[in-house]
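Review form for a predicted model. The reviewer records the input and the model, then writes brief findings.
Reviewer: anonymous (R2)
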Amino acid sequence: MAVNTFILITLILAGLWTVMTRSLLRSAIGLALTSAILSILMFRLDSPLAGVFELSVCTGLISVLFISTISLTHPLTHEEILKHMKERLARFKYLPFCVVAAGIAISFIKIKIDWSLPAAAAEKDARLILWNLRQLDLLGQIIILLAGVFGVVILFKEVKKNE
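Model under review:
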């Protein structure tokens, strides 16, 4: 359990570094690092198929696509980087505090969650597994989807500003 907690903290720190770094290339590398850490966690939680998928697609393929796309764009000047960094810091300056506050709030919430993992291949019906046995996976997917929506909203907001 302590190793998983350490991996989760490392995952959060890598995610924060990915969001907060000023270079797009470093962000793409941070995304790959975050996905690699997540895949380690999936392997530790006895989900090798999900770990392999995360490692091959998210760490490898997506990172290569991002880095290839970044290499096709022209680099920003130093002034543009500083301006972009100021805008990013203004946008995300409360993010580390929100993450810490959410962690503290979640630690105080007394929700009874069954943290034990079900036995592998005990159920054959995917609906039963998804809705009855893997509720934490659903919660994680909802959080990831909301984070993706939040990211898309920020990206389109920035595009509107530049037009």
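Findings: Helices lie at 2-20, 24-44, 48-72, 78-92, 95-108, 126-133, 135-162.
Further findings: The two ends are 49 Å apart (CA to CA).
Recommendation: see findings above.
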